[in-house]
Amino acid sequence: MKIPTDVLHVVKVLSGRGYQAWIVGGSIRDLIIGRPVSDYDVATNAPPQNVMGLFKRTVPTGLKHGTVTVLTKSMNVEVTTFRLDGVYSDARRPDSVTFSASIEDDLARRDFTINGIAYDPIGGRMVDPHGGREDIAARTIRTIGNPVDRFTEDGLRPYRACRLAAQLGFVIDPGTFDAIPGCLDRAAKVSAERVREEFIKIIQSETPSTGIELLRMCGLLGLFLPELLAGFGVKQNKYHKYDIYFHNLHSCDAVPSADYRIRLAALFHDIGKYYAKKEVEEDSRPSARPDGPEGRKKSVFYNHEIIGAAITRKILYRLKFSNNDVKLITHLIRNHMFHYTVQWTDGAVRRFMRKVGLENIELLFELRKADRIGNGLKKGESNSVTVLKNRITRVIAAENAITVKDLSVDGYDIMNELGIGSGPIIGKILRELLEQILDDPAKNMRETLLGIAKEALEAHKNKTAPV
Fold this sequence. Notes:
Elements (H helix, E strand, L loop, with lengths): L4 H12 L4 E4 L1 H8 L7 E4 L3 H7 L3 E5 L4 E5 L4 E6 L1 E3 L11 E3 L3 H6 L9 E3 L4 E3 L4 H6 L2 E2 L5 H7 L3 H12 L2 E2 L1 H5 L5 H4 L4 H12 L4 H11 L1 H5 L1 H4 L14 H10 L6 H9 L4 H4 L1 E4 L15 E4 L3 H15 L4 H13 L10 H11 L4 H14 L8 H15 L13 H8 L5 H16 L6 H19 L3
Parallel strand pairs: 2-5, 10-11
Antiparallel strand pairs: 1-2, 1-8, 3-4, 4-5, 6-7, 8-9, 12-13
């Protein structure tokens, strides 16, 4: 196995002082599979204080649990002393540990067989007491020992099983999977931050729906994301092949980028439909209803994008996403229902660009395409979106004003020219100027805008003057 030089250096320093040093965990699993490896963990029989004394730059990451992070030139290497774990009262970490001299003891405390393999890069030896290599070959995720014991110890492990299945394209051993529902009380104790990190990794996997479906079937999805689960089995209209839940999942899969923000926007884009759904009479005119008798009901979802953006905001804050993530994802959801027609004027196109933001235009189109593919009846990008893209390109090429910052005057120019002080009226005048420019970019000249500003101020005075 090809091990990075800095990781080999850590192993050699420990071995040179007479200690065992094994590379363990997910890095060995990924090396066997042939996946890229970014993090390396080393297990040793050296006490943590001794490890700190052997290297110039270290961080006592978790001395209580025997973990020291060694800072090398190219990466951080986590070095942990062989140990046996005590009781996990918080469903995340053992209350106490007992240091051991045996690599086999250390491997026995780990979560899954595919992560319970150790490799000695100096001697070229591999220790695999739980059949991890066989499970890798069989593409199976199985706990080490009794799955109930493993999941009761650490409530994050059920999430991790679903995440690994999605990332690696593996299946979860039936005995392992069937143990998860009985351990949901432990999973419920895991912090929102840790759940979020596992969820993001599922969203970034090749087919996110695989991991999300596993979360649903074992009960984890209802535990931390009941709003998404609410759409399961809720039918839409004749324009959609899938129910609300599976439409959201297929839309998420259809996003080509691994950017979790765009995929989350796709996953949640129609989450408001469950709450907005209403049954109304179809149009009774024969020309409007060639496919059904009079009195037929149809499903409508008015304002579901507004409702969905609000629901998504609550979800993302509950899972401790950053403010920037929340702002972008909810913004895309709020605007994904735009309806472009050839009747749009150039001013309407500019208003659309201003509303969405130039920096978000391509992201919104990516979401819209995923939404179209996710309905199960259509493919690719719609012709109307392609036409709108071309029009936006022409508007940008013409360098027309889109935001207040693009105006040829600013607030100070207006205050100086009109002899007024700062206040809300300045913002109102600037917005009025922008509306004028969106319809006629040729007006974006200093003198013209100042003339419009004077008219806007007079109109404001007349409107607010007492009768």
